[in-house]
């Protein structure tokens, strides 16, 4: 998650593959279990919390 730059569009499918997941759905399920947020909401929240990253 630290590799996510909220200032840039996020390709969640690509990120899931690079993280070793078979598909985006499996990644999304585990991401939500870990963060309690859907991946897209996490990206939005990080952009709001880190305005300097824009």
Outline the low-pLDDT stretches: none
Secondary-structure class: mainly alpha
Distance between the termini: 17 Å
Shape: globular
Q: What kind of oligomer do you see?
A: single chain
GO molecular function: DNA-binding transcription factor activity; sequence-specific DNA binding
Protein name: HTH araC/xylS-type domain-containing protein
InterPro entries: HTH_AraC
Walkthrough of the structure:
- The protein has helices at residues 12-18, 24-35, 39-49.
- The radius of gyration is 11 Å and the shape is globular.
- 56% of the residues lie in helices and 0% in strands.
- By secondary structure, the chain is mainly α.
- It has three helices and no strands.
- The mean pLDDT is 79.
- It has a domain at 12-45.
- The two termini are 17 Å apart.
Helices and strands, with pairings:
Layout: H1 12-18, H2 24-35, H3 39-49
Domain HTH araC/xylS-type: 1-45
GO molecular function, one term: DNA-binding transcription factor activity
Protein name: HTH araC/xylS-type domain-containing protein
Can you tag this structure with a few keywords?
HTH araC/xylS-type domain-containing protein, HTH_AraC, 54 residues, globular, DNA-binding transcription factor activity, sequence-specific DNA binding
Quick structural overview:
The chain is 56% helix and 0% strand. It is mainly α. The model has no long low-confidence stretch (mean pLDDT 79).
């Amino acid at each position: 998650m630290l590799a996510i730059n909220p200032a840039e569009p996020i390709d969640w499918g690509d990120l899931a593959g690079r993280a070793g997941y078979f598909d985006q759905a499996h990644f999304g399920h585990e991401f939500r279990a870990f963060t309690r947020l859907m991946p897209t909401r996490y990206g939005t929240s990080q952009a709001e919390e880190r305005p300097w990253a824009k």
